[in-house]
Amino acid sequence: MVSAEYAKALYELSVEENNVTNMQEELTAVYRTAYKDSDCYNVMTSPFIAKKNKKEILDNVYKGKISDTLLKFLYVLIDHDRFSLLRQIRKEFEKNIREENKILKVVVKSVRALTQEELESIRASLKHKYVKETLEIENIIDEDILGGLQVIIDDEVIDYTLKASLKRLKESI
Length: 173
Prior knowledge:
Elements: H1 2-16, H2 20-36, H3 38-45, H4 51-62, H5 68-79, H6 86-100, E1 103-110, H7 116-127, E2 134-141, E3 148-153, E4 156-161, H8 162-172
Parallel strand pairs: 1-2
Antiparallel strand pairs: 1-3, 3-4
């Protein structure tokens, strides 16, 4: 995946510069700016606007506000028509951080916000399987879930929702 290679390169540069946390914050800020303002995103990804002009816009908006490393990285994205990958690059960059620090991201979808006690119970039950990792749990409210939980760990989905239980019951009949 191309975005993973770009993210890895940026991550390695930020490790060399001992600037990972700051780079993550800056990359997130640039991402939010670019995607929040659809005009900005459209300009940066347009094949009809010269790359030189795009870089001048980046300079006007970000020079002095983000590190030179990230600004030059954005230039590379512009040069190779890869600015549209910024969202994936940011995700992959954060994934690199989690992998390096042995942090496992867990998303728990539920119909309502879970209490701290419920989240700790989930953490305790997962800790037996994922002994070496620190678990970072995010609770997402999904009203489409009638009841129960859906736990997503990387590419693994553990579905304890009422909907999934009913589906399994129907298939067994």
